[in-house]
Design brief:
The chain has no helices and 8 strands. By secondary structure, the protein is mainly beta. The chain has a single domain, classed as 10 Kd Chaperonin, Protein Cpn10, Chain O.
């Protein structure tokens, strides 16, 4: 992709949720909510403070994140539907399943 967001913006690809409930009921497309989970595709350079210094973002490309239901602006880039949103619209980063061992 040849698109780089500016400043504190990120480009997010929605990650589709399962179309079945835990009980095995298939949810039709018209009843499904838009997923609130995504993957960071690209990040901007960061925010610029009043003294001109650039503060890098806390997220990077490839991370899985959660965002608000109505966050971002939907755009189509290279035929793919993506979201552009500010870093402040992100709710958190989803860590992989590996847990760190605690020292005793």
């Amino acid at each position: 992709m040849k698109f780089r967001p500016l400043h504190d913006r990120v480009v997010v690809r929605r990650i589709e949720q399962d179309i079945k409930t835990a009980g095995g009921i298939i949810i039709p497309d018209t009843a499904q909510e838009k997923p609130m989970e995504g993957e960071i595709v690209a990040v901007g350079s960061g925010t610029r403070s009043e003294d001109g210094k650039v503060t890098p973002l806390d997220v990077e490309a490839g991370q899985r994140i959660l965002f608000g239901k109505w966050s971002g602006t939907e755009v189509k880039i290279d035929g793919e539907e993506l979201l552009i949103m500010k870093e402040s619209d992100l709710l958190g980063i989803i860590e992989s399943g590996a847990k760190k061992k605690s020292k005793k």
